[in-house]
Structure to design on (136 residues):
């Protein structure tokens, strides 16, 4: 579903707080300047797992349950095992349930997130770990 090179761990987005939701709304609402069509809906990482619990994907391919922040649209969650972000007003993105097969539901865009580098890991930055050249 999400891929970004072979080094950078990438997963469908986990929207855990209102700040991240607001950032995504700022980035992904509006219309495509070339086609005039809306930029949404988008799949993201919230899904029902095999035991029917709403869960997020984690970088180690495990899952963790939905807790705390949500932004379900009116009447949601309803049927479907995956979620999309969609808008009815062109400004605010809300969460809606849908099927998980992008071909059948005609949604082929996924918001993904990549694990960032920090002081404990430079794995995402292959340029950061080049061997140094010694001067003689």
């Amino acid at each position: 579903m999400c891929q970004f090179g072979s080094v950078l761990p990438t997963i469908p987005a986990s929207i855990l707080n209102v700040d991240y939701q607001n950032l995504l709304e700022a980035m992904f609402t509006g219309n495509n300047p070339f086609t005039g069509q809306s930029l949404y809906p988008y799949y993201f990482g919230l899904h029902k797992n095999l035991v029917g619990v709403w869960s997020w994907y984690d970088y180690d391919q495990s899952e963790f349950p939905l807790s705390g922040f949500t932004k379900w649209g009116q009447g949601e969650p309803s049927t479907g095992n995956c979620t999309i972000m969609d808008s009815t007003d062109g400004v605010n993105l809300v969460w809606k349930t849908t099927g998980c097969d992008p071909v059948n539901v005609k949604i082929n865009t996924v918001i993904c997130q990549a694990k960032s580098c920090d002081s404990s890991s430079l794995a995402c930055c292959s340029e950061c770990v080049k061997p140094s050249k010694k001067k003689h």
